[in-house]
TrEMBL record:
SUPFAM superfamilies: Adenine nucleotide alpha hydrolases-like, THUMP domain-like. This is Probable tRNA sulfurtransferase. The gene is thiI. It is found in: Cytoplasm. PANTHER family: TRNA SULFURTRANSFERASE (PTHR43209). Keywords: ATP-binding, Cytoplasm, Nucleotide-binding, RNA-binding, Thiamine biosynthesis, Transferase, tRNA-binding. Catalyzes the ATP-dependent transfer of a sulfur to tRNA to produce 4-thiouridine in position 8 of tRNAs, which functions as a near-UV photosensor. Also catalyzes the transfer of sulfur to the sulfur carrier protein ThiS, forming ThiS-thiocarboxylate. This is a step in the synthesis of thiazole, in the thiamine biosynthesis pathway. The sulfur is donated as persulfide by IscS. InterPro entries: Rossmann-like_a/b/a_fold, ThiI_AANH, ThiI_fer, ThiI_N, THUMP_dom, THUMP_ThiI, tRNA_STrfase, tRNA_sulfurtransferase_ThiI. It catalyses: [ThiS sulfur-carrier protein]-C-terminal Gly-Gly-AMP + S-sulfanyl-L-cysteinyl-[cysteine desulfurase] + AH2 = [ThiS sulfur-carrier protein]-C-terminal-Gly-aminoethanethioate + L-cysteinyl-[cysteine desulfurase] + A + AMP + 2 H(+); [ThiI sulfur-carrier protein]-S-sulfanyl-L-cysteine + a uridine in tRNA + 2 reduced [2Fe-2S]-[ferredoxin] + ATP + H(+) = [ThiI sulfur-carrier protein]-L-cysteine + a 4-thiouridine in tRNA + 2 oxidized [2Fe-2S]-[ferredoxin] + AMP + diphosphate. It comes from Cohnella nanjingensis.
């Protein structure tokens, strides 16, 4: 079937008020960015929608690119007809005849958004549906469970006829709601948390803590690959590689084995907050899921989260593991996440980690470390390496203090 249009419906963006136009312009820019490979496309923005004229470009290729654009509620490959009954009838018949596999039943649905059209929606259902039935003898009407729902959308700029509605990624256009820093491990959870943050309109930069020589280069490359996959949705993502060996080793020497995970994660949040302040980010994002491990009990999350002032966003907090795995498979991170390369979070794990740590005891241990802890945190921040990833791979790398990508 030769489709000449792509009808794109915006998602949560439609709830916006007076500033809606600004967000619709951002959404149009993100759609164009996702479709740069298709040079002949032209675009028209309308209330809550974007109409893309294909001009001979491949509809399947355009559809595949649109599926991963945040802010799109759904879209449909469509045929455009003039706002005239005969033209609409012929377009509807052509769409139905081209549908594969050939349906046995159908339902007719007409939406008359342009009120100057001479026939109301219910009348058009009969006028168009009867024409399709007369010219397709094997086809029957089934209102409740049709094989195909043939849709006719009458707009001021023309009538769009289609029978496929493809779900979009939903959410808000990337960057609409600010910037956050994602604590990205090599596991299953944090990449999903990053994808969910981007879906809600957050631009993200990723932070990964490594502990050479205790962790391998493969473990870091695994995170680089995960960042590359997230860049498929985000366009371009900065990855901050934080050296954590000295700090982690010093915490392990504090003789507080049951608190080592709590102390380590509090230190990570302090480092992440300092990087966020440098990068103009207003929140931190983690892959915490309530009760999944010792550091993710409510008591642990309470003590760990008190270390920072920035909002700590936990998109997965109420999800179970199987739900998270399904998301990881859907976004294409699962196979990389399960590769057997350990990150620094698996080092020095005690046999009995605290699941309900005492805040005063934790603060007392940190106080004893004093300026040494502060120094190690500052050194970790200063030694952070910045890698810029796109969907095609590594764009560049340099020390964070020498970053000139802004």
């Amino acid at each position: 079937m030769y489709y000449d249009y792509m009808l794109v419906r915006l998602g949560e963006l439609t709830i916006k008020g007076r500033n809606r136009g600004k967000f619709e312009n951002l959404m149009l820019a993100k759609i164009k960015q996702a479709l740069t490979a298709y040079e002949r496309l032209t675009y028209e923005k309308s209330y809550g929608r974007v109409y893309i004229t294909l001009n001979g470009e491949d509809a399947d290729g355009v559809s595949a690119a649109l599926r991963d654009v945040f802010g799109i509620g759904s879209f449909s490959p469509a045929v455009r007809a003039a706002n005239e009954l005969g033209a609409i009838r012929e377009a509807a018949l052509a769409v139905m005849n081209a549908h594969r596999p050939a349906p046995a039943t159908f339902k007719m649905t007409v939406k008359r958004a342009w009120k100057e059209f001479p026939h109301v929606s219910q009348e058009m259902n009969h006028l168009v549906g009867a024409h399709v039935l007369r010219n397709t003898p094997a086809l029957k009407v089934n209102i409740r469970e049709p094989d195909v729902e043939l849709k006719v959308d009458i707009q001021p700029q023309g009538t769009f006829v289609y029978c496929t509605v493809v779900p979009g990624a939903g959410g808000f256009p990337l960057g609409m709601n600010g910037k956050a820093m994602l604590l990205l491990s090599g596991g299953i959870d944090s990449p999903v948390a990053g994808w969910m943050a981007m879906r809600k309109g957050l631009e993200i930069e990723a932070i990964h803590f490594h502990s050479y020589p205790f962790t391998s280069e493969q473990a870091t490359e695994k995170v680089v690959t995960l960042t590359q996959r997230l860049a498929h949705y985000g366009g371009r993502i900065k990855l901050h590689l934080v050296p954590f060996t000295e700090l982690q080793t010093r915490l392990a020497q504090s003789k507080q084995d049951h608190l080592i995970i709590t102390l380590m994660r509090r230190a990570m949040l302090r480092i992440a907050q300092k990087l966020a302040e440098q990068r103009g980010a207003l929140a931190l994002v983690t892959g915490d899921s309530l009760g999944q491990v010792a550091s993710q009990t409510l008591g642990s999350m309470n003590v760990i989260g008190r270390e920072i002032d920035l909002p700590l966003l936990r998109p997965l907090v109420m999800m179970d593991k199987q739900e998270i795995i399904r998301y990881a498979e859907r976004i294409g991170t699962y196979e990389t996440s399960i590769l057997p390369y350990e990150d620094c979070c698996t080092l020095f794990v005690p046999k009995s980690p605290a699941t309900n740590p005492n805040l005063r005891v934790v603060e007392s241990v940190e106080h004893e470390l004093g300026e040494e802890l502060n120094r190690l945190i500052e050194e970790a921040v200063a030694g952070t390496e910045l890698v810029v990833m796109t969907a095609q791979g590594r764009e560049g790398a340099r020390n964070a203090e020498e970053d000139r990508w802004f």
